[in-house]
Write a structure and sequence with these properties.
This protein is an alpha+beta fold. Helix content is 22%, strand content 39%. The protein is built from 5 helices and 9 strands. An 8-stranded antiparallel barrel has the order 1-2-3-4-5-7-8-9. Helix 1 packs antiparallel against helix 2. The longest helix is centred in the N-terminal third of the chain and has 15 residues. The mean pLDDT is 93.
Length: 194
Amino acid sequence: MIGKSTLLEAIAGKNRGLLATETDKQAILAAIAQLEDYNPTPRPVEATELLNGDWRLLYTTSNGLLGFDKLPLIKLGQIYQSIRANEAKVYNIAELYGLPFVEGIVSVAARFEVVSEKRVQVKFERSIVGLQRLINYESPADFIAQIEAGKKFVAADFKLDSREQQGWLDITYLDSDLRIGRGNEGSVFVLTKG
């Protein structure tokens, strides 16, 4: 699809948005809007076979996520989102790098509720912040399996008040390997499956 390749070319080399100039951001948002007009999945929240799985963030305008890179001695690594559609669960994982042996991880676990054919209400329930070495972090899939097994980590591992820690996300484009979402804070997210 031409619109898809245009978007992927526009975000290439932008380090998930960290290196995007204002001009880049405008071009990327235009490519996103164009692709959204050709969404092959008109009811994305019902397409659980497409939605379900492990996603990697390619681009975002989220200051909350990109802000991790502004912390002293910290660089933002990969960001993942794993969706377990049948259980209405979502896991967000951000890998952080900096000084040797102090690689970190910031993760939140949430539940979601479908509120329309495109929108989900997300309620954050648990946050885990710690050093990858201390929590034996090897991969997002392994880490999520440990969370689902009820493991408590040697980290800042705490429950969140889901009444206060919530938001919504509109899934505006979904195919077999690309997903675009727009959040309640005006942020845009482009993710790839796998």
